[in-house]
């Protein structure tokens, strides 16, 4: 029996499309512009971590968690919008990439090592 439940990605993409259409923003939502906007959001995320020590980053300050959640959401929403505009099923792409990463990074070769697959 096929699962007919709507994917959270598809639901969010539909809501994003409606949001943009209601504001006449579709004219601006081409892949290039969306990637540029995504880059800005990643910069805002990086700014939250910029001067934290590794220990502080691992135990992110509670008073900044809402800002962190907003930046992560902005990034996810832009990724979903870019995927939609480029006709990429992001959920399927993530599933395939996980399989590929498992092949490229076998546990017995990369365990405890922070190197690229071609250096294993």
From TrEMBL:
<dbReference type="Pfam" id="PF12643">
    <property type="entry name" value="MazG-like"/>
</dbReference>
<dbReference type="GO" id="GO:0005829">
    <property type="term" value="C:cytosol"/>
</dbReference>
<dbReference type="GO" id="GO:0047840">
    <property type="term" value="F:dCTP diphosphatase activity"/>
</dbReference>
<dbReference type="GO" id="GO:0006253">
    <property type="term" value="P:dCTP catabolic process"/>
</dbReference>
<protein>
    <submittedName>
        <fullName>Nucleotide pyrophosphohydrolase</fullName>
    </submittedName>
</protein>
<dbReference type="GO" id="GO:0042262">
    <property type="term" value="P:DNA protection"/>
</dbReference>
<dbReference type="InterPro" id="IPR052555">
    <property type="entry name" value="dCTP_Pyrophosphatase"/>
</dbReference>
<dbReference type="InterPro" id="IPR025984">
    <property type="entry name" value="DCTPP"/>
</dbReference>
């Amino acid at each position: 029996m096929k699962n007919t439940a709507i994917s959270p990605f598809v639901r969010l993409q539909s809501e994003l499309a409606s949001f943009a259409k209601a504001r006449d923003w579709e004219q601006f939502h081409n892949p290039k512009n969306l990637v540029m906007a995504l880059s800005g959001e990643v910069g805002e995320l990086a700014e939250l971590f910029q001067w934290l020590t590794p220990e502080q980053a691992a135990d992110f300050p509670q008073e900044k968690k809402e800002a962190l959640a907003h930046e992560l959401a902005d990034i996810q929403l832009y990724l979903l919008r870019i995927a939609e505009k480029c006709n990429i099923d992001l959920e399927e792409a993530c599933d395939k990439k996980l399989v590929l990463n498992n092949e490229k990074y076998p546990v017995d070769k990369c365990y405890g090592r922070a190197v690229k697959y071609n250096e294993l």
